[in-house]
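Hey, can you fold this one?
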Amino acid sequence: MFSPVDIARKARAALKAKADPARARGAERYFKEAVKCYGVRAPEIHALAAELYGLTKADWTAAEAVGLCDILFADAELEAKAVGGLILCRFKKAYTPALFSKVKSWLAADRLDNWASVDGFCTDAMGAFLRRYPAFVEKIKAWTFHRNRWVKRASLVSFIKLARKGEFLPTIYEISESVFPIDDDLIHKANGWLLREAGKTDPGRLERFLLAHGPAIPRTTLRYAIERFPEPKRKALLRDTRQR
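Sure. Predicted structure:
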């Protein structure tokens, strides 16, 4: 049986072997915050995660996958964090309630310290967790008031896939409203993304929400939220939600 340390070692060796310094520099410039990359393409990251999962699926539980994330999330490189998260997502049917506090601790400690890592992990892993344990939907509301921006962003993006299917919409709109006062562009963008997804199954509800809250909504959030409306509707919403 391979231990989390064994798999982490294999992941790092494979990523180093595939590293492309020029691609890494280009990827790093894409972020406002400081990040490090190996420069490995996304398909190769997914293929590596699938390969390593194949070595562990017969013997591991979610606990070992969490242990792997404890190791790889401490790495600076985005690809190492991604491999850990992708493997943990393969064990979603074995998640336990303890994962909720573990994820929060990773975020609060800046183990996932950029929007790509937070979004990649939380949209999949935390979305599956919330569907499996809906009682935690109420608990994640408190994350919006946490001092750490990644905990805040996770409170939004964890609902992306659920919003897309029209699940938990009352909570989604409540969380969305609660972060309007936060002065953080990454929160504004995540909130707009979430609202846009929520509007896919019920665009009328999204439109009513935007009109009801109008000037309180950060303009970045609003622009993201209305992207899928026809152009005349977008222009009307931009006009009708301005501060008068």
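Residues 72 and 80 are 6 Å apart (CA to CA). Let me know if you want another pass with a different chain boundary.
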